[in-house]
């Protein structure tokens, strides 16, 4: 099957793109890496009137550090992150996530912004960046705004974009020194979509922890204060204090009825917690040090 007919345009800069978004009639899709949009067009799951190719806009490929925040343009690719072509304030955590996304050809073209806007529940960046406390920067012809990623992703394949608005950048805060990070996903085989994802960000000496469970049939399950999973207290011994029953109860409360599904997700989460506890020194670098 081939796509239905559509118009194609390639704006040269961001103001031109935003102006076109504001005036376009009918349905419009933005194309960056095309790793999700391409198959959807071919299968006619989407039939836009206009496709705007945003790959030629320099601002969307930029990466910078603003204080203790990493700012990545929407068209930064997974491979850019994997290969260290952009700064890293997470001590290698983002590179580890990037290198496990699908296959290298996909990572060469797929973009961080495209992944977040597609909002597939099984996507790596959706879960991992929520765990890292990321924000998205949204722009339209009338201005810009920022939104926490967990508020931006409103459902499976659904995000909080207003008409004429697009995601232009992702803002990722630096991990404080001593932060433990774990990210584990379960797939039938390497490169396939995940059936369960666990992302763990623990600051044991500050007694804080954030846990996100992804690849569920809704928005990721976010525990901004994960102490309930560790007997009410997070410390250096957090891995030993993990309460699988509390995690199971959380999933059951979120609507996951099947006990086998819950078991898989709890097991993956337990592995992410164990990985965080055993994290190498490279994941506890000083804030601002590049990968």
Please work out how many helical segments DSSP would assign. Answer: 11
β-strand number: 14
Structural class: alpha+beta
Averaged pLDDT: 93
Largest sheet geometry: 5 strands, antiparallel
Model regions low in confidence, pLDDT < 50 over at least 5 residues: 281-291
Mind telling me the C-alpha Rg? 19 Å
Which second-level CATH architecture of the largest domain applies?
2-Layer Sandwich
How many separate structural domains? 3
Proportion of residues in helical segments: 25-40%
Domain FAD-binding PCMH-type: 1-177
Keywords: FAD, Flavoprotein, Oxidoreductase
InterPro entries: Diverse_Substr_Oxidored, FAD-bd_PCMH, FAD-bd_PCMH-like_sf, FAD-bd_PCMH_sub1, FAD-bd_PCMH_sub2, Mopterin_DH_FAD-bd
Pfam family, one: FAD_binding_5
How would you concisely characterize the structure shown here?
GO terms for molecular function: FAD binding; oxidoreductase activity. It is built from eleven helices and 14 strands. The protein is α+β, with helices and mostly antiparallel strands.
Characterise this structure.
With 291 residues, this protein is α+β, with helices and mostly antiparallel strands. The protein has 3 domains: 7-53, Uridine Diphospho-n-acetylenolpyruvylglucosamine Reductase, domain 2 (2-Layer Sandwich), CATH 3.30.43; 62-173, 2-Layer Sandwich (Uridine Diphospho-n-acetylenolpyruvylglucosamine Reductase, domain 3), CATH 3.30.465.10; 180-282, 2-Layer Sandwich (Enolase-like, domain 1). The chain has 11 helices and 14 strands. It has helices at residues 14-23, 37-42, 78-82, 93-98, 104-109, 112-118, 124-131, 149-152, 238-241, 244-253, 259-277, and strands spanning 7-9, 28-31, 50-53, 63-66, 69-73, 135-140, 143-148, 153-155, 158-159, 166-173, 180-187, 194-203, 208-214, 221-223. Helix 10 (244-253) packs across helix 11 (259-277). The termini are far apart.
């Amino acid at each position: 099957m081939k796509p239905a007919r559509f118009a194609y345009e390639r704006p040269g800069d961001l103001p031109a793109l935003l102006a076109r978004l504001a005036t376009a009639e009918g349905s419009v899709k933005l194309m960056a890496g095309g790793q999700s949009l391409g198959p959807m067009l071919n299968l006619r799951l989407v039939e836009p009137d206009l496709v705007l190719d945003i790959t030629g806009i320099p601002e969307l490929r930029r990466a910078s550090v603003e204080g203790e925040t990493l700012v990545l343009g929407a068209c930064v690719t997974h491979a850019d992150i994997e290969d260290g072509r952009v700064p890293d304030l997470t001590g290698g955590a983002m590179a580890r996530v990037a290198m496990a996304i699908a296959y290298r050809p996909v990572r060469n073209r797929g973009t961080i912004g495209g992944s977040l806007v597609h909002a597939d529940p099984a996507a790596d960046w959706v879960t991992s960046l929520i765990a890292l406390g990321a924000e998205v920067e949204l722009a339209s012809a009338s201005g810009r705004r920022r939104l926490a990623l967990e508020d931006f992703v409103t459902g499976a394949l659904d995000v909080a974009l207003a008409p004429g608005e697009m995601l232009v950048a992702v803002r990722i805060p630096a991990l404080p020194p001593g932060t433990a990070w774990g990210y584990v996903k379960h797939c039938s085989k390497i490169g396939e979509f995940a059936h369960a994802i666990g992302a763990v960000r623990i600051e044991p000496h500050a007694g804080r922890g954030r846990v996100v469970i992804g690849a569920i049939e809704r928005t990721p399950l976010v525990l901004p204060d994960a102490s309930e999973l560790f007997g009410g207290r997070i410390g250096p011994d957090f891995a030993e204090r993990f309460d699988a029953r509390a995690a199971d109860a959380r999933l059951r409360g979120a609507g996951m009825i099947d006990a086998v599904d819950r078991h898989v997700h709890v097991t993956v989460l337990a592995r992410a917690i164990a990985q965080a506890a055993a994290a190498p020194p490279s994941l506890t670098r000083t804030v601002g040090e590049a990968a």
